[in-house]
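Researcher: I'm preparing a figure for a lab meeting and need a structural model of a single chain. I don't have an experimental structure, so a prediction will have to do for now. The sequence is pasted below. Please return the structure as tokens so I can convert it later.
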Amino acid sequence: MKKNISIILSVCIVICFAGCDRAYKHTTEYISRNSFMLDTLIEIRLYDWEEEYTLTLAMEEISRLERMLSATYEGSDIYCLNQEDGKSWVTISKECEEVLALAKEYWTKSDGNFDITIGPLINLWNIRNGGHYPSEKELSETLAKISTDRLLIKERKAFLSEPGMEVELGAIAKGYIADQVKIILLKEGVKHGIIDLGRNILAFGGKSDNEPFIIGVQDPFKPGEVIAELAIENNSVVTAGAYERYFIHEGVRYHHILNPFTGFPADTGLESVTVISDYSADGDSLSTICMLLGEKKGLSLIESLSGVEALFVRSDGICVESSGFSDYVVKRYYTLAE
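Model: Understood. Here is the structure written out token by token.
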């Protein structure tokens, strides 16, 4: 039997503080704040800390970066960049430049599978608003607009070199924002905390009673249940899954993780991938990349990276772990591949 959890803070990853207290007893007090931002429910918990203004600083940073990196927020760096597609260079912030540069790095590492210029394809499928099954002509025209190598960056400026191109940072922005919030909290003197930005969990310092945080990994087949409990102290845990957003067309499920080469949702035999890393931006990007690459290539990429582990959940429910993933596992509720 899999274990029900009492508090679900996101679709993909659940912080099971209440559900896991039986396994890890603690009496540490914390302060917290939650809100709906970044198109999801978020929460920040600070342990052994009493200054409420620190939570305000963290929430203000999330809001500031969202207004900077969202493609739909009128006036944001990304919005302005997309508006000037094929026309002119756009001045961008230091933070936006950092995100775009990191995304280009992962585009290279993933052999082009991780592509933030996928905006036109996301708009075409329109999965967020009920879905649209595209024609071959629509796909062909849209795919011609996608390629990160035509996104140019130089000294706080960016340029989309072809008309119709559009950047979408949905697979990296939350992770980057979590990392920036952590920097602010550490500067303020906070030593123990956990940042939950929906699919992106970032912990630092463990709890102040010298116990780790226990993170429940969402079962992709059964909402509200977990397939694993992980103990982390200074790590990010991010899950990407085919079950998050999708629509049904003629009896077939089409999910939101789109392949920039075929134009269709990733069809690699994976239901979800959970990545443990030091930085949330890495986990955010890599979880999506692994869904696109599939188990064999994804696992090879994970094993090549220092300080990164992953859990691959196949479409049949069988799971595959990277070589060091078991170091974080408190409990398993899944079957490992032989």
